[in-house]
Design brief:
The protein has 102 residues and is mainly alpha-helical. The protein is built from one helix and three strands; from the N terminus they run βββα. Keywords: Coiled coil.
């Protein structure tokens, strides 16, 4: 049975999905692209290579996320340390209030 890849989805079928059709109805012809008949061995090899690339990308993404989380925790700790310190708005400011004139 020939395989087709969906270009334009319709009800119940997603874009990029591979479907098997014995005969393509004229109304669906514009929505699908015929898939070349391939070698099962080549397909398995390509699938294995693809999976290796995906696994490497996932590992890289995990390391990037871990580094970002560590940096965020450092920033939060620094902010919490500085949160307890009060600095005057002006260098010569004092805590004493001037008496109010009536």
């Amino acid at each position: 049975m020939p395989k087709f890849m969906v270009k334009h989805p319709w009800h119940g079928v997603k874009k990029g999905q591979i479907i098997d059709l014995e005969k393509v109805h004229p109304s669906l012809k514009a929505n699908v692209v015929p898939m070349p008949e391939g070698d099962d061995e080549a397909e398995a090899k390509a699938s294995a290579e693809t999976q290796a690339i995906i696994d490497k990308a996932n590992a890289d993404a995990k390391s990037i996320i871990d580094e970002a989380e560590a940096k965020a925790k450092e920033i939060i700790l620094e902010a919490e340390k500085k949160a307890g310190e009060l600095t005057p708005a002006t260098p010569k400011a004092t805590a004493a209030k001037a008496p109010v004139k009536k």
